[in-house]
């Protein structure tokens, strides 16, 4: 959808940005908070002192309750990382880049939600062009997510990432609107 590039646009506008995927990488990395819980729950997922995403994919494919068990380990760690970021940031606006926000009920913790979007065929083209997943993999991922039209309908702000310039213009309007609202409060 272009969420990473859009998050950078928010940073360029002076917002502090927290990235859920980066938090997971920190937790899975050497000395990360997820390593020991995974070693206890799924020892085969820990390789060279880190949590292997490839091993987790295999475990999820082979074990029916694995995803729920993995999420039970990871979600609290990511939530703690997010809370620490929110406590420490000095920026007037904090942006939380959370891929599965609606699916996890995280929108209830946000003051406003912005959804980044493109048409489904463009999303598919972008994902498959990365070469990191197949069409079947993408279909499985999308099947676990709330459909994009529902997300955009629920959002306070929608950012269409059809061109970098259009996305930048929308981000600037959103930041200006939030700052105006903060000043009026």
TrEMBL record:
Annotated Pfam families: CoaE
Lineage, opening ranks: Bacteria, Pseudomonadati, Pseudomonadota, Alphaproteobacteria, Rhodobacterales
Q: What is its main location?
A: cytoplasm
EC number of the protein: 2.7.1.24
Compartment list: Cytoplasm
**Keyword list, A-Z:** ATP-binding, Coenzyme A biosynthesis, Cytoplasm, Kinase, Nucleotide-binding, Transferase
Catalytic activities: 3'-dephospho-CoA + ATP = ADP + CoA + H(+)
Keyword Calcium listed? The answer is no
**What is this protein's function?**
Catalyzes the phosphorylation of the 3'-hydroxyl group of dephosphocoenzyme A to form coenzyme A.
* NCBIfam families on file: dephospho-CoA kinase
Query: Per its record, how is this protein called by name?
Result: Dephospho-CoA kinase
